[in-house]
Structure formats: structure tokens, C-alpha cells
Amino acid sequence: MIYFAHRGASARCVQNTVPAFLLARQLGATCYELDVHLTQDRQLAVLHDYSLREVAGKEVEIGHLLQTDLQKYPLRNRFSKEAVFIPLLKDVLPVLEPDLQLLNIELKNDGNRYPGIEKKLLEELTENNPQLLSKTLFSSFDFDTLARIRELDKNARVGLLTRSFDVSKALYLGAESVHLNHTRFTKGIAHICHENGLKIYVYTVNEKELAKRLQEEGADGIFTDCIEKFLPSKI
Which of 48, 182, 191, 194 is catalytic? Predict the structure, then answer.
């Protein structure tokens, strides 16, 4: 069973921030999930939503900001008085690298909102972190985004993130895994995935009993906000 630290240790820190990923690693994580967008000046930023409305109370989209603008918007922090900001991917990767086994990068690119994000992401890893490329799993709800990843790199590791399971799409992409909300997961879906050589990872699972049941029914991994519940802590 694989346990992904979903946006870092996001039950204890502001999600998708450097402190969240650092704490997840300290808690024993070796597998992580994060989300990427492109800023206006084509920098890869780590954030879940397209807008800063929920995370910073600002009606502005990440795609309209420059890299230098990110420091103007402190994120809401209910955990401490520390000021935290949207990081760039290049700031997060060094935090994750020690003991990293698997990094799931979700590309936020519905309707190709960020043309060229696939190439930018592959170049970022190839040029600056080539040692991480073989440990990176690319996922997206946008099927065409994953198709472009596959076209750009025949060896890229791809995970089909979907709300409507269709094994043919995963096989077309040459995916290694299917990612589903745990409420959509079934034993039957797990069986079909395994028959076709696919892993199945489910999100977001924060309770041990639910994780145990999902594992018994065939899930190969979970994304969790509470990584400390599932791994022996290093601190």
C-alpha cells in the first residue's frame, strides 16, 4: 500500500507549501502529491485552485500573476502566525528529494488553460532535476494534457485522474495507474485495473479503517492529508 502525502502534511500545515512538504517528510513520507499551474511569466507554481480566493481571500487567478507577485499574497494560515506563500515547484523539489520514492504531480490544465505547461514541466525536471524524472508520476483530470505528456515523452509515468472510470483511456495513454475519489472506487474497478496491469490510487482518505477496507478491496494506494496516521514518524 502506497501512502501519498496529499499536498504535503495538509492536516497540520497550509497545503501545497514548503512547510507542509517539509513536515510530511519529517513525519516519514516518501511519496507525495502536489498540483502545478503556470504563472503569467511561465513559472511552475504549486497551488490547487486556479484562483487565490479560498487560499488568500483575493479574487485573482494564478495565471494572471508574475513570479514576483506570489510574495504579495500571504496564504491563510490557521495553524500558526507564520507567513507562508505559494511556492514554485523548483523550491519544493529539493525538500522532497531526500528518500523520495514517488512524486505525483497533478497538472491543473482544464481545457488547456496553460498551453505548453506539459513541455515546461518536463523541461524543468529534465534540466534541473533529472534524477527525479523516473520517480515522477504525471496526472491530470484533463485527458488531452496527459496525451500531450505522452507525446512529448514516451517514457513518462502517467496516472489517469478521472471522475468516470474508463480503462480504455488509461490503456490508450500507456498509463501505469488510475486515480479515483474513494467514493467512486469499487472492487470491480480494482479488478479491471489489475487485470490490465494498472495500479489504482484513491483520494482523499484520512481514516485508518477506511484505508484498511479500501486496501482489502484492491486499492494499491491512498492520498491522505494525515500522513502521520499511516507511517512511523521520524520525529
Answer: 48
